[in-house]
Predict the structure.
Amino acid sequence: MTATPDPPDPARPAAGDALPLVAGRCFGDGDPLYAAYHDDEWGVPVHDEHALFERLALEAFQSGLAWITILRKRPAFRAAFAGFDPEVVARLGDDDVARLLADAAIVRNRAKIEATIANARALLALHEGGRTVDELLWSHAPDGPRERPTTWVDVPGRTAESAALARELRGLGFRFVGPTTAYAAMQACGVVDDHLATCPVVSRR
């Protein structure tokens, strides 16, 4: 997800369909899917390798698009990429790329599809070397507590840590992982928690 989340599409949902939950979220008010992602996932620590692979893949697919677009397509992405099982995705070949490019339910971008397959192979190579994505990602967590942002102006799009993470990932064969995408993944996986100080989630956690 981009460091500054996209505002919800005002055309969705229709009046009366919004979640009757907390108001005043950092983002997501007015769209049940977006609100649930904000409340239950964004900024929550993730350590499972499959879940981390999915987050990295979806952040790559999000590049240049609104995050809500990816959320709405998430079930289709999971079906298309075997639940983001890296061992299955790593075995995908040219015929599978052609199949995925014909799948209108996902984002049909050849570079992003091929990057997802390459990243699954890089993840398996990392495991063969005795390391995990979990270890790698969390090794780039900021040192010590940070002051919680009060407005989106205070939320960076990239940091020194995300630049270092992107550099290491690329050195290991991962693709579509620039510093901005790396920072979005850090936010999505809870390596950093950028919920604004006034967000109701802050008090609930």
Notes: DSSP finds ten helices and no strands in the chain. The longest helix spans residues 110-128.
